[in-house]
Amino acid sequence: MKILIFPKTYFICLTFYFYSAFADNEDVFNKAGPVIFANILYRHGARTPAEPYPNDPYKNESIYWPIGWGQLTNLGKLQHYKLGQWFRNRYEHLLPEGKYSPSLIYIQSTDMDRTIMSALSNLAGLFPPDNAEEWFNKIPWQPIPVHTTPEKLDKVLAMKYPCPKFEAEYRALLKSKEIMEFNKRHQELYDYVAKHTGLVVDGPVQLEYLYSTLLIEAMNNYTLPNWTEKVFPDKLREVSAFSFGLYTYNKHLQRLKNGPLLKDMIQHMDEKINGKLDPNRNLWVYSAHDTTVANMLNTLGVFDPHPPPFTATVLLELRKNINDEYSVTVLYKNSTENEPVLLTVPGCTAACPLDKFKALLQDVIPVDWDSECHSHQLFDLTSDQPYNSLAIFEETEILENPWPKYFYWTKKYSRTKNI
Fold first, then answer.
1. From the candidates 44, 252, 268, 306, which is the catalytic residue?
2. 10 CB-near residues (< 8 Å, 6+ apart)
3. Other Cβ atoms within 10 Å of 180 Cβ, number
4. pLDDT tens, position by position, 148-157
5. Which UniProt keywords apply (predicted)?
6. What pTM did the predictor assign?
7. Known catalytic membership, residue 154
8. Whole-angstrom Cα distance, residue 57 to residue 304?
9. CB 300 within 8 A of CB 330
10. Domains identified in the chain and CATH numbers
11. Tens digit of each residue's pLDDT (9 = 90 or more) over 77-113
12. Of 383, 366, 384, whose CA–CA distance to 375 is shortest?
């Protein structure tokens, strides 16, 4: 084990950096005014592996993962409970008396156990019952609704509703020169991993899943095989980080994959200002996945490629200053322990005027997502203009797994599954 010793000057500089950043943020917030509405998007908490790799020494579910594959762990529940407490503190002014009311907050989740359970754990920290709300003195908890849509009908959060155009665009991207060159540069890594795991590795997405599995096994104090020392965590993290940018690699993919969610958030803010948000809520919460978080950050142009950790949170806060001017601040909180980082959308200021925010992102907001998804006109991935001959597909061809070569578990578990 390596023990890192840092000089005192390191901590002095680090402390000064965070103090300066905090001071700068406070200046931005003071000028922009208080938060009057917030869109909250977070990843679920710590979970068990989604599925083992073929040669995984810990693939015996009943022995090593008795709660099942892809399930929220006790750590994950605690992580979200703490995050809920943080929300309660940050948005105290938006929650009169700290009590739950359906007119104040709406919570929606993808239709998966771990995201629903994360939302419920989060709400336990956000809204602990007071005396009037307590219904059984031995359980300091109150039931709060979390709304879901079946995955394959979800056109906003899970985004599993079939979109042939996205699927065709994505397949074209995977065959593009840039991605092929990336694969070529990492072929030695692919071969090494394939040899030791039993996986068929043809691209970065497969290593994204492997990185996640190994990370979870390490978090649970399981000794990783010796072969992993050469590639985990650094090399696998690098490729995994690249993989998280693929779904929203360009504006066309951003428009089809994340556009509906961003459109939903902007609509909430517009309705809040215009008095048309009914009920007139102050918080809108989305419980989702690492891919959802990465897609949102990338669409906003603020994604520093990385695998979003458990409970990673994106905040789109609507603010109003003393001059009745509205702006949006984008923050990213990548840990329950750390304060969020204030991000700046390219072409704007940290507190971005709402009208400018919408104008800058107009290209990635679909007008009619259903129509665009079934359009036969595809895009040239190297330009901003439509291009008809990039790929040809039938409108009726819905691809259950549009990345067949990238997976070992093409039928049981594919990239169409969120993690």
1. 44
2. none
3. 12
4. 999 999 999 9
5. Disulfide bond, Glycoprotein, Hydrolase, Signal
6. 0.87
7. no
8. 33
9. yes
10. 31-161+250-367 (3.40.50.1240), 165-247+388-406 (no CATH)
11. 999 999 999 999 999 999 999 999 999 999 999 999 9
12. 366
For residue 361, the number of C-alpha atoms closer than 13 Å in the C-beta half-sphere is: 30
DSSP letter for each residue of 331-346? EEE--SSSPPEEE--T
Please state whether the peptide bond connecting residue 233 to the residue before it is cis, i.e. omega within 30 degrees of 0.
yes
User: Residues 6 or more apart from 301 whose CB is under 8 A from it?
Assistant: 345, 346
User: Distance between CA atoms of 51 and 69, rounded to whole angstroms?
Assistant: 6
Is 252 one of the catalytic residues? no
Are 171 and 380 in contact by the 8 Å Cβ rule? The answer is: no
Q: Which residues of 208-219 are buried (b: 16+ CB within 10 A; e: fewer)?
A: bbbbbbbbbbee
Ramachandran quadrant class, 37 (left: phi over 0; alpha: psi -120 to 50; beta: rest) = beta
CB atoms within 10 A of CB 354: 19
Q: Residues 80, 186, 268, 290: which is the catalytic one?
A: 290
